[in-house]
Amino acid sequence: MIDRSWLGERLPGFLDDLDALLRIPSVSTQPEHAPSVAQAAEWLVVHLDDLGLEAERIDTGAHPLILAEDNTAGPTRPTVLIYGHYDVQPPGPDAAWDSPPFEPCRRDGRLYARGATDNKGQLFIQLKALQALRETHRRLPVNVKLLLEGEEEIGSPGALDFVRTHADRLRADVIVVSDSHLWSEDRPSILVGLRGIAYLEVQVTGPSGNLHSGVYGGAVVNPANALVQMLASLQDTHWRVNAPGFYDRVEPLDAATRSLLPEGYGDRVRAETATPALGGEQERSVAERTWFRPTLDIHGLKAGYTDEGAKTVIPARATAKLSSRLVLGQRPSEISALLMAHLRASAVAGVRVNVRTLSEAQPWRARTDHWAYGLARKALACSFPEPAAFVGDGGSLPIIPVLESAVGAPALLIGFGLPGANEHAPNEWLSLLAFERGILAVTELLERIGEGPTARTSTAPATGSGHV
Amino acid sequence: MIDRSWLGERLPGFLDDLDALLRIPSVSTQPEHAPSVAQAAEWLVVHLDDLGLEAERIDTGAHPLILAEDNTAGPTRPTVLIYGHYDVQPPGPDAAWDSPPFEPCRRDGRLYARGATDNKGQLFIQLKALQALRETHRRLPVNVKLLLEGEEEIGSPGALDFVRTHADRLRADVIVVSDSHLWSEDRPSILVGLRGIAYLEVQVTGPSGNLHSGVYGGAVVNPANALVQMLASLQDTHWRVNAPGFYDRVEPLDAATRSLLPEGYGDRVRAETATPALGGEQERSVAERTWFRPTLDIHGLKAGYTDEGAKTVIPARATAKLSSRLVLGQRPSEISALLMAHLRASAVAGVRVNVRTLSEAQPWRARTDHWAYGLARKALACSFPEPAAFVGDGGSLPIIPVLESAVGAPALLIGFGLPGANEHAPNEWLSLLAFERGILAVTELLERIGEGPTARTSTAPATGSGHV
């Protein structure tokens, strides 16, 4: 690990560099900001060059992809692929921010700006760890590849395409990503699971137009009544999915991972959501339910008359949007198909049913028995007061399984954002203490990875992605 | 019955009078038309005066109520209360009409204009029958009261209030209303049932805001999933309502009425709605299902994200509007209460449920064993080639049970509109043949009612409204 006091002296300069990147409004979702996204890419290419990395700008989609390399560690040393993104969410109205979103502001131990956590700040933890290692050790302990994209907030179309078609340029022994959360400022975490998704839209139609429920009610099958029956048939009241085969391929959570899940996540969820009571599979912890178990949630319902007051209509159509979050073993297309089949089979006579898939993503689970995970826990322990927890994220990051599969190496997800950091909301912030501890942890991790083959002896193979 | 050839000669003049009323755009639902509604009332007061009735304008609500009387038949003769309305539905865009809505146009045996059927034209059948009787017989065979309102299309607030508080001014032996349909141009009908309604809105809430379904799915109870389960629990897949007690008070349809229901209503419903297949209680005819059986229909569903594409949200709230159509015996407030109780009981932990009643109306069934029904069937048989059918209307006409109860006499609903007459749509029309036959039928009916006490000997009491 690099010297803490040395880092303390360099930190203001590192943050000034971060400020410069945060000032560029690289909002990838809004076409008018495309020049700013390009400007951020250019800024990064120059900055990476300053850090001694050979950086290349690749125009693969709407916004540039950056691939940089430093192979000075030599062929006997392992290679680490670092992934991050420099695009940001729209800031929303300035009035909702206490300081302007693109004028970085440090106060109360935090750095406030759009992108401070997601993902410029966390990306900078990686960059500044490389810079610190180079400045203090003259050369890096590992070979490094950096893959930085500007389309993460629009679904990574260009990066996914590039990764799938240029796997040869991305060969590495381990992938390191910082785009997640600490458990708390003192307790780091390693993200070991992401859920997949199968997202469906179902439309039920019946009569050719809306009908008077007085005139026709009792004989014409009401599409809204039919939809409700179909949706209800998908689950029991404990939200267990009834569609046959739904759970067949679910790979249970291993005991080792379960033992490292944090306690008290249920209390946190209750506090964050202000929900009257939690539900779901009561025999499992809230952490397991939300990170490692499949679900079925209705996202939207629309039928008939929904304005003020009473209107007596049999709606001609009723629609619902719903998705299942998926876990390791489940295949999105197979789950889509069996949910569709169940919906169609539960439709009554008198209505027509149209179901289609809107999106699908693979689930992912970390290979926690890989040597990199042991090294990561040790490295994090050197710079944080409490040991690392294993956590999941119930959402999907489609690029992670794709990267693992293409690179042929496990992904290690160590995040330095804090819960409540407002990543997609006004007043996004990054903890300055987490920034400093993160840099220390990453330098320690890269040094340990670089220590050589013994560190890499492991019970698990470093390649192969069959179980993704 | 008056002489057909006499009527043939007078008919053009009668239609000219109707045209004058149809030209007044008495749209009660649109405030800018209030002067026109008042103008139509004034026109009617003058016209009734011309017909020899003493007419009074009563300002009881937004638009005037008209009460007219002719008691020249004398105290030994029965009294008939005729109810109708002179307000009309908005016409909608002129472009949708083949001829302007307030410029009456006769073509192809029809009179086209807003209000031609609903209700100015049918109201005129009553008025012109009185005029014909007076002109040909010198005086009316019965005493007559006319109650004409200008607020029917906005829910009859003033008329309901007046009827409830001035029952003494409305005493009669029978109420006659023409605001319904013939079965066909050749086959008249008597409307013998109206369904009531209990209309509810249910709102399910959970977390304090919309949540990311990836992060929280599996532990936070989804209000949309919960709503769907609650609604589905109300019914089985044959649409039988599961709420305990729902059917307890339902008074079955009597065999005499059932024997007079028309055949082939199912074919008509299928043709009108283009629905793939009819549903509901297969062991009952479509006529019985839609006119004389209770229902439960969802009118609106709203939750979460309903625009294009996929959004992975756990909605903070989900709402539904639904109603039960009610039949004789069922009490709207009792049905509301038991549906609410069932919804609340089927709610899972983790959500809050709010249910409220938006509207209620009493069901109504004709006292078909009353002497007036036999007379009506005979009178209709004199002017139409086919015998009258008994029909129902699955909707609600709240004023009918209120009138019956206040007046203390049965209502006789004989309508002369035709199916497909576009009452609430562009190109509303009235059959000129139905207009003529209607006038003949009403004169015949009033003459028969006036024939004296023997005609009124009946197995049923002429007063009392306990079973409404």
Structural write-up:
The structure is a homodimer. Chain A has about 475 residues and is of the alpha+beta class. Helices cover about 35% and strands about 20% of the residues of chain A. Chain A is built from 14 helices and 18 strands. In chain A, the strands form four sheets. In chain A, strands 1, 2, 3, 6, 7, 8, 15, 16 and 17 form a nine-stranded mixed β-sheet that branches. In chain A, a hairpin with a 2-residue loop joins strand 4 and strand 5 (about 110). In chain A, helix 1 (about 5-20) crosses helix 3, helix 3 packs across helix 13 (about 430-450) and helix 4 packs parallel to helix 12. The longest helix of chain A is centred in the N-terminal third of the chain and has 19 residues, at about 5-20. In chain A, about 55% of the residues are buried. Residues about 455-468 of chain A have low confidence and may be disordered.
Total beta-strand segments of chain A = 18
Oligomer: homodimer
Gyration radius of chain A, in Å: 25 Å
Strand content of chain A: 15-25%
Q: How would you sum up the global shape of chain A?
A: elongated
Give the mean pLDDT of chain A. 93
Summarize the largest interface: chains and residue counts: A-B, 81 and 81 residues
SSE layout and pairings?
Two copies of one chain form a homodimer.
Chain A: H1 4-22, H2 34-50, E1 54-58, E2 65-70, E3 79-85, E4 105-107, E5 110-112, H3 120-137, E6 143-149, H4 157-165, E7 174-177, E8 189-194, E9 196-205, E10 211-212, H5 213-216, H6 223-232, H7 255-259, H8 265-273, H9 286-292, E11 297-304, E12 313-314, E13 317-326, H10 332-345, E14 352-361, E15 364-365, H11 371-383, E16 389-393, H12 399-407, E17 411-414, E18 429-431, H13 432-450, H14 453-456
Parallel strand pairs in A: 3-6, 3-7, 7-17, 8-16
Antiparallel strand pairs in A: 1-2, 2-6, 4-5, 5-18, 8-15, 8-17, 9-13, 9-14, 10-12, 11-13
